[in-house]
Structures are given as structure tokens and as C-alpha cells.
Specification:
By secondary structure, the protein is α/β, with parallel strands linked by helices. The chain contains 20 helices and 16 strands. Helix 4 runs parallel beside helix 5, helix 5 runs parallel beside helix 12 and helix 11 crosses helix 13. The radius of gyration is 24 Å and the shape is globular. It binds FE2/S2 (inorganic) cluster.
Length: about 575
């Protein structure tokens, strides 16, 4: 069929009495809808990341049905469509490598489709960021529903959440856990659909979405598959119709103060360091200035308020029972902008309430759960464009530390040598992993949480200073400096480190420094060779346009201004990376 007469992409297409509308209605009526179902209604797309290749998002088929009920009840026409879906455990090389591709899919489908608004259904780590990035750029009214956390597992009679996996895996590596225990562990890895059941990346991004005003207040922590989540989905369906009729675009909702409040929330819950990358990408999409200096100031003035795993001990359902994010916003008080619109299009002020329990998981500014500065934004001679460290999950005795580097070039090198008896390492060493940044790792794999060498593990060492240009799982902890920019693969100083070099980390001064004389570094730089990497297809697009971590790893041409951010343009060796 020719598309020459299809001139409108909004829902008004379906009300057009002429040939455009008749054909459009006719095609929809072929699916079983009636003329009354279709005409003269706001049309709401439902962008669904449900996929059998993404168990974390496995509950979103049901969620979509509840969203549809709400849309229909409010007089709208729901039309669901699939998007790319990215599962952390499955996609390779990394989900971040594909985040921008998914965001382009979402943006173009929203823009091209005859819809007046969209509900975004996401969950697993990169799916919500990609959905939001696409929706921000498309500019149509949007609301999101998160998949919600999955039920708790059980290990040896105790509730088990995702961050408990890593010590069990270490037990296996060091030979403590036998084959039967290893099989038992596998059976308890996941006890249902839904996202990781701690304040990892997925839930952190759900919290950010709620604080931004892109999902309903009080919606981010309700469990997957619960009646509460079904109710949230139905209410979202009703409210997106109102948001669409009002023509309220994401840019009307998400301003600089919303991004600031979202980052404060991340700091207050000890959320995932991945959030920094996504927030910087959001800012780029919306044309809002945001950089490490702003984030550092916000972090340094935001107390750690919520006792929740992995930074604390509480469970997500306990935080939810204590009042969830509306209670957190109440406790943050004048640190956040309560006059901004929440996801129900009312000022946040009307949704906040004190925690339901004294002495529960949500503290107060007078009695916080930890100090200010849960997420550290550091820089120095080893990371001129910055790096990130989750201070709430770091060891206090390592926050000021000098140690000698033990360097690994990529994941294969790490795996082959980390447990070698010949590895010259002691508890004071600084483990360095490089070649795993946005370009070198093809999307910053979550390998920055380098394992403690088995010999030291057996001696009782549980944490060491670790540095890399990678990311780490939002469920991991330790004194781990991540997202070093510029990365080694484009000639950042990380590429110049050699075994035995002293590295100083000082959290108080926000510094990470390579203590090697400039002349020696200049000599090493002259010897550095950055080889071109053959690439085609998406990889070619990615390598040619991805930005460094300090500007959110988005493609330069997808930013609101359509040009490279300063961090990307100063990246040395960038053009040599694409053959
Ligand atoms: Fe999907 Fe954690 S692996 S949310």
C-alpha cells in the first residue's frame, strides 16, 4: 500500500473522515476493534520490553493489560508495540553497548506512530534508561511503569538477594562450596519474574523515573506480579490519557531541578553508580547542563537516608512498607523541589508523607543512616575527566590509600591471572583493569568489581582498592573506582599505568592520582599504539559516535544539541578507533 496519503502521525489520523483516516481505521478494524473503539479517542502507545529473552521483564505482558484497562477507562485507545529488550545476564558484549540502539528504536517508533502519548514498560537495567532517552527525544507525553522487583530467594534458611551472590561465587572459586551447593545455588538465583531485588541499577532507575515525574509517585518499589503493581499500571493508563490531552511533554516535566532531585534520591538510597551515566545521558537528550561538578555538590550535601541493600541491610519491601519514595522525598524536604510535578501531574508536595515507622528503613536528615556523599565523583591525573566511586559501599579504611598497581589488560587477562599464585599482589595493592570502557569494552562491561585474588581471599581479605574504566553491577560493593575517563582504549592515562606504579586514592579530596613523574608518562605515551579496530554495521556507528562516561555514553548526534560534548571532543585517539 502506498503511504503517500498518510500525512499525520498523531492519533487524529484515526478520526479523519477522509481517505487517510478511513484506511487507518480500516486496518485497525481488521484486528477486531470497532469504529467506536477507534475514532475520536486519544491514542496511547504502550512500548513494551516484554521478552522471553528478558526474564526480569517477564511480568510486563500482564502489566500491559492493566495499563490498557486504565487507558480505555479514561476514554483512550491503547495500542501496544514491542521494542528491543536488553537483559543484563544475556546480551553481549554488554547491555550498555545496545542501550543507544534501543533508545533510537523507541524514539523513532514513538515519533513515527499515530499516537498522542506513550506508556513505557521497562525493568532490567538498561531498558528504563533507553525508554526514557527515546521518549525524551521523541517529545510526546509519556509515563513509565517499572517491572518491579522479583520475590526474595532463600539460601541456607536465610532470605537471599542479588548482592549475596558474589560471596557465594567467591566461595565456589576458593573451593569452599561443593558441587551440590553450587547446584542448589543455581536453583535459588531467581524465584520469579521481576528485577533484581535490591537497590541495584534496575530499581535505582525506577526510583529516578519516579522522582523525575515520569512514573506515579509511590510506584517504583511495588513487587512484580503483585496486586499493587497491577493497580499502578491501571492508574498509569488513566493518567497518561490526561497527560496526553494536556499535551504535557517530557520536557515540561523534567527540568534541571528534576535531574538534581533524582540524583539526590540516588545518593540517599545508596543507589547504583550506573545511574550517573544514565542521568548524564538524560541531561544531554534534554539539553540541560549537568556535569560531575554539579553531581559532586549534590552528593556532598545529600545524606544517606535509606537503609536498603546493597548499601544497607533493609529489603526493598520494607522501604516500600515504610512509605517508599514519597517518604524519602518528605525527608529530603527543602533539598528537593516539591513544587515540581510528579507522575500524577500534581506537585510532589501533595504526595509526600513522613515515614510510616519510626526507626524503620527511612531515616531523617537529623538522624541519617550514613554520612553525606554516598556517590563520590573523583578526578585526578589517572582520571582527568572523572571517575565514580560508591562511597556508601566502600571500606572506611581504604578511603585514603596508596598502593602499587597490579594491571590487567581486559577481562581475559584478568581471568587468566587473578588467581595465579605468581601474581605479585598483597592486600595493599591497587588492582587496575583497563580496556573495558565505552569503546575498549564495547559498552563498559560490569567487570569493575574485580575479584579479590583467591590467595588473599583465603587470608581473609574482603576488599581492596580497584580502579577501571568499566562499570560495576549496582548490586556490588567495595572500594571500586569506576568509569575512569578518558578510557584506556582512547589513550587515557589508565593506558600508561604499569605494574608497581603507585596510585593514590583520597576520597576526602575527591582525587585518584597516578604517582609517576610527567616525563616518564610522556615517554610511555610516545610508545603507546592505538590500533584501528575493523567494524561494520551497528558497531561502526557505536565506535564512531559513542561518548565517554563523563557525558553519559550517548551518541553525540543524539544529544539535544546534536554535537559532541566537551568530554567526547577532547578524547585522544578517538578517530583511530574506527577502521
Ligand atoms: Fe535484570 Fe538485575 S539482571 S534487573
Amino acid at each position: 500500500m502506498s503511504q503517500e496519503h498518510i500525512s499525520r502521525v498523531g492519533g487524529e489520523l484515526f478520526s479523519d473522515p477522509g481517505p487517510d483516516g478511513t484506511l487507518a481505521r480500516g486496518f485497525l478494524r481488521g484486528t477486531g476493534l470497532t469504529r467506536d473503539d477507534i475514532a475520536d479517542r486519544p491514542v496511547i502507545g504502550i512500548a513494551n520490553t516484554w521478552s522471553e529473552l528478558n526474564p526480569c521483564n517477564g511480568g510486563l505482558r500482564d502489566v500491559a493489560e492493566h495499563v490498557k484497562r486504565g487507558i480505555v477507562a479514561a476514554g483512550g485507545l491503547p495500542l501496544e508495540f514491542p521494542t528491543i529488550s536488553l537483559a543484563e545476564p544475556f546480551v553481549r558484549p554488554t547491555s550498555l553497548y545496545l542501550r543507544n540502539l534501543m533508545a533510537m528504536d523507541v524514539e523513532e517508533m514513538i515519533r513515527a506512530s499515530p499516537i498522542d502519548g506513550v506508556v513505557l514498560l521497562g525493568g532490567c537495567d538498561k531498558t528504563i534508561p533507553a525508554l526514557l532517552m527515546g521518549a525524551f527525544s521523541a517529545g510526546k507525553p509519556a509515563l513509565a511503569v517499572a517491572a518491579g522487583p522479583r520475590p526474595l530467594s532463600c539460601w541456607r534458611g536465610e532470605p537471599m538477594t542479588v548482592e549475596n551472590f558474589w560471596p557465594i561465587i567467591d566461595e565456589r572459586r576458593s573451593g569452599v562450596l561443593d558441587d551440590a551447593g553450587w547446584r542448589e545455588f543455581e536453583s535459588q538465583v531467581s524465584c520469579g519474574v521481576g528485577t533484581c531485588n535490591v537497590m541495584g541499577t534496575a530499581t535505582t532507575m525506577a526510583v529516578i523515573t519516579e522522582v523525575l515525574g515520569m512514573s506515579l509517585p509511590g510506584s517504583s518499589l511495588a513487587g512484580a506480579g503483585t496486586e499493587e503493581r497491577s493497580g499502578i499500571a491501571e492508574r498509569t493508563g488513566r493518567l497518561i490519557v490526561a497527560r496526553a490531552l494536556a499535551g504535557r511533554s517530557p520536557a515540561d516535566i523534567v527540568d534541571a531541578s528534576a535531574l538534581h532531585d533524582a540524583f539526590r534520591a540516588v545518593c540517599a538510597v545508596g543507589g547504583s553508580t550506573n545511574a550517573v551515566i544514565h542521568l548524564l545521558a538524560f541531561a544531554g537528550r534534554l539539553g540541560i547542563p549537568l556535569d560531575a561538578s554539579v553531581l559532586r555538590e549534590l552528593s556532598e550535601t545529600t545524606p544517606f537516608l535509606v537503609d536498603v541493600r546493597p548499601s544497607g541491610e533493609g529489603f526493598l519491601h520494607e522501604v516500600e512498607a515504610d512509605g517508599g519514595i514519597p517518604a524519602l522525598m518528605h525527608q529530603l524536604g527543602d533539598l528537593v523541589n516539591l513544587d515540581r510535578l510528579a507522575g500524577d501531574d500534581r506537585p510532589w508536595r501533595e504526595s509526600v508523607a513522613p515515614p510510616r515507622r519510626d526507626g524503620g528503613t527511612i531515616g531523617s536528615r537529623a538522624e541519617p543512616k550514613g554520612p553525606v556523599g554516598a556517590i563520590g565523583l573523583v578526578s585526578g591525573t589517572l582520571a582527568p575527566d572523572g571517575a565514580v566511586v560508591k562511597l556508601s559501599a566502600a571500606s572506611p579504611d581504604l578511603l585514603s590509600h596508596i598502593g602499587r598497581a597490579v594491571v590487567f589488560d581486559g577481562v581475559e587477562d584478568l581471568r587468566s591471572r587473578i588467581d595465579s599464585p605468581d601474581l605479585g599482589v598483597d592486600a595493599s595493592s591497587v588492582l587496575v583493569l583497563r580496556g573495558v570502557g565505552p569503546i575498549g569494552g564495547s559498552g563498559m562491561p560490569e567487570v569493575g568489581h574485580l575479584p579479590i585474588p583467591a590467595r588473599l581471599l583465603a587470608e581473609g581479605v574482603t576488599d581492596m582498592v580497584r580502579v577501571s574504566d568499566a562499570r560495576m553491577s549496582g548490586t556490588a560493593s567495595g572500594t571500586v573506582i569506576l568509569h575512569v575517563a578518558p578510557e584506556a582504549a582512547v589513550g587515557g592515562p589508565l593506558a600508561l599505568v604499569r605494574d608497581g606504579d603507585p596510585i593514590r586514592f583520597d576520597a576526602a579530596s575527591n582525587r585518584i592520582d597516578l604517582l609517576v613523574p610527567d616525563e616518564e608518562l610522556a615517554r610511555r605515551r610516545a610508545e603507546l599504539r592505538i590500533e584501528p579496530v575493523p567494524s561494520r554495521g551497528y558497531e561502526r556507528l557505536y565506535r564512531g559516535h559513542v561518548q565517554q562516561a563523563d557525558t553519559g555514553c550517548d551518541f553525540d548526534f543524539l544529544r539535544a544539541d546534536g554535537v559532541s560534548a566537551p568530554g567526547a571532543s577532547r578524547t585522544p585517539g578517538r578517530t583511530e578507533q574506527t577502521a
